[in-house]
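[step 3/7] fold_predict: job queued, chain A
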Amino acid sequence: IGSAAGFTASVLLALRAGLRGEIPRSAWNTLRSMGIAILILYLAWMIGKACTVLGTADYLTAVLGNYMIPELLPVALFLLAAVTAFSTGTSWSTMSILLPLVVGLAYSLGEGTVLGPHTLMVMSIGAVLEGAIFGDHCSPISDTTVLSSTASASDHIDHVRTQAPYALLTMTIALGLGYVPCALYGISPWIVLPLDALLLVGVLRVLGRRRAEPDPALLAAADA
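[step 4/7] structure written:
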């Protein structure tokens, strides 16, 4: 519906600007440029549907419930959601698969811990949401990744490679200095969150590189 509305608005604006002859050619060029994206999305949906039918997420969640240390459940759910979303290319389906199973599992496991059932349940829900979003943004078959690279006229694999370091850095800090100290050692989130933010800024300041300024001679040649 959104695409149809955008296309209709573009046609009306083009007609108003007197570009009647440009409409068919522009529409065909756009459709042709989106062909690869549509094909990748179609194949991604097929993979996601196959994973849903196989019930891989249900099986892994049931196995975790039998052998998992309760305090490490959020960490395991984060990784499980990340792997599932990365493999299927969708965060929403991962959330819809895991969350109904996680709520009851986390609440029951939390009854025998210091955290308590409610706290462990909330942390586990957050872990599923964040892990699914992480896996979705890093997945080369994700609709957001495909459309982002297509809309910006960027090579798809280059887009995946360039955004992965930022996502992996955030995931590592969130797990190592977020879920582990809070869930396993009971450290307050009000202590952990500022430290995580400072560490992120520090890593970018140390390892980050400034964007190279363009050569004025090349800019002048391009303008000419």
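[step 5/7] annotate
The mean pLDDT is 80.
The chain has eleven helices and no strands.
exit 0
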